[in-house]
Amino acid sequence: MPTSRITALERLTALLETPAETRDGYLDLLGTADQAGPPTGLTQRLMRTTLLPQVYERYWRPALGRALKGPLGPSMAGEVRLATKLLGLEPGHTALDVACGTGRFTRAFGAAVGTGGLAIGLDGARTMLAKAVAEDGPDSVAYLRADAVRPPLKESTVDGVCCFAALHMFAEPEAALDSFARVLKPGGRIVLLTSARHGWQPARLLDSAGGALSGQKMFDRGEIGASLRARGFTGITERYAGVTQIVAGRLG
Asked: 157: closest CA among 106, 120, 191?
């Protein structure tokens, strides 16, 4: 393992509340458990398969995102650029990419924070993290297998939290938002991409049915923004496309 990667893992270790085992190029706090928390449905189970990580970043995620966002929503590359901008990442910052999958956003964050910063990719799926580690990313990137709902980082340790295309699959999304606020430094920024149910009642019913079949929670438009305000976030911005919303804000 390159010395630079060890350095990134060592820096991540210093931010953890409890020691973690080094496994296959990432830190692991889940051990033999298949996942953290109860399963929520088909979509979440697919994330743990061997095949999906191989096609996730290039085919699955862009195609699924386009279907959910519609023709006017950003591409996956556009999402990465928007998330990086909304987090306001600068050299030396620490960014946390929750439910990082194969690390597409994490690598971009690593480039933004530079060699003096740290981009942490957190996921619960071994197969996703194996693919992420295998990618050629910046030296400032380190990966962690842990509970995405309750990231095991010390309080007020990161400058930015990103959680794209995952909050609606969590069994406890409100607990996750509490955790994100806890690990952010005062003035730190958050950006989320999650579901957004339409306001028109017939469309709402279809949205809810689709969410139930796939095991995903359908949030109302404005619901996530309100949840962030209740936790002390300010400067909330909300962007809607199809059945998705991108919500960002600053803590304090």
From this structure: 120
- The CATH number for 125's domain is 3.40.50.150
Domain count, the chain: 1
Q: Kindly report the pTM of this predicted structure.
A: 0.88
Between 136 and 138, where is the model more confident? Answer: 138
60 band by pLDDT with thresholds 50, 70 and 90: low
pLDDT of 56:
65
The tally of CA atoms less than 13 A away on the side-chain side of residue 3 is 0
Residue 160 to residue 96: CA distance in whole angstroms: 6
CB atoms within 10 A of CB 175: 14
Q: How far apart are the first and last CA of the chain?
A: 40
Beginning with the edge strand found earlier in the chain, give each strand of the sheet holding 94-98 in spatial order: 21-23, 26-28, 141-145, 118-123, 94-98, 158-164, 184-195, 244-251, 233-241
Range of the domain at 55: 3-251
Mean pLDDT of all residues in 177-196 = 97
Instruction: Give the tens place of pLDDT for each residue, 86-114.
Output: 999 999 999 999 999 999 999 999 999 99
Count of residues in the chain: 252
